[in-house]
């Protein structure tokens, strides 16, 4: 049987709690024909107002779903009113946990959604962020900082070990140009992958140019005694990597 929160969500599966006219569009585009429920266990935390629309921190915590023991296979996030709506597609695979943080861009005030797939059903949570806007169509660091090339590609990170998980904090110096600004072609990081020390991929994250410049990510992972190797690739074929140990 489903928990009471999920049962309530099933009964209102098509009644968007954020009342966005874009919900039917992206429900079909990103989630397809699979069953969908709005679930309070998918928690999306963000500021109620974005003071800097180019750097808006959001955090996902769907660990309440993991308590059932059924694997989570996919996590998708998007912004209803961004010109590039999708934020990321996360595959936790063998080691990733359903907790993730990153900074995003907002073109205007909008609903922000996260959908977590478990057992063939999408569990959806979200929040609404007020914003002055322009985060997707104003020049990034490449246009504002003539020195950005000196730090381009620097990958910094740290691993924080806890009893039940390891938290990885990662920052990659990259302009993340969306291609929406005249004379600035799209130039952004497309993917991150996490490997164990034997080179086996254990989690993967695909992102879009709607993620902020200098992507800063927080992964929550199952403990790996020897730590992890993190790799990244952008749309120009540049590759970046580093190892993190406890």
Automatic annotation (TrEMBL):
Matches recorded under InterPro entries: Fuse-rel_SoxYZ (IPR030831), Ig-like_fold (IPR013783), Ig_E-set (IPR014756), SoxY (IPR032711), SoxY_sf (IPR038162), SoxZ_dom (IPR014880)
Domain of life the protein comes from: Bacteria
Residues of the Sulphur oxidation protein SoxZ domain: 167-241
Xref: SUPFAM superfamilies: E set domains
Gene3D superfamilies in the cross-refs: Immunoglobulins, SoxY domain
Xref: Pfam families: SoxY, SoxZ
Name of the featured protein: Quinoprotein dehydrogenase-associated SoxYZ-like carrier
Originating organism: Vreelandella olivaria
Higher taxonomy: Bacteria, Pseudomonadati, Pseudomonadota, Gammaproteobacteria, Oceanospirillales
């Amino acid at each position: 049987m489903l928990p009471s929160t999920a049962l309530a969500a099933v009964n209102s599966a098509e009644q968007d709690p954020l009342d966005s006219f874009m919900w039917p569009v992206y429900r079909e585009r990103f989630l397809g024909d699979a069953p969908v429920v709005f679930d309070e266990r998918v928690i999306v935390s963000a500021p109620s107002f974005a003071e800097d629309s180019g750097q808006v921190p959001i955090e996902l915590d769907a660990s309440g779903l993991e308590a059932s023991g059924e694997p989570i296979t996919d996590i998708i996030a998007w912004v209803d009113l961004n010109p590039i709506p999708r934020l990321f597609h996360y595959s936790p695979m063998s080691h990733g946990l359903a907790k993730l943080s990153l900074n995003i861009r907002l073109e205007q005030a909008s609903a922000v959604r996260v959908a977590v797939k478990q057992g063939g059903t999408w569990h959806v949570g979200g929040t609404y962020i007020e914003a002055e806007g322009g985060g997707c169509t104003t020049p990034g660091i490449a246009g504002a900082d003539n020195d950005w090339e000196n730090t381009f590609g620097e990958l910094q990170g740290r691993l924080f070990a806890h009893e039940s998980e390891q938290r990885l904090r990662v920052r990659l110096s990259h302009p993340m140009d969306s291609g929406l600004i005249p004379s600035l072609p799209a130039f952004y990081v497309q993917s991150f992958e996490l490997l164990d020390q034997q080179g086996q991929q254990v989690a993967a994250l695909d992102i879009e140019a709607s993620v902020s410049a200098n992507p800063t990510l927080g992964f929550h992972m199952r403990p790996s005694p020897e730590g992890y190797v993190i790799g990244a690739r952008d749309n120009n074929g540049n590759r970046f990597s580093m190892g993190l140990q406890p």
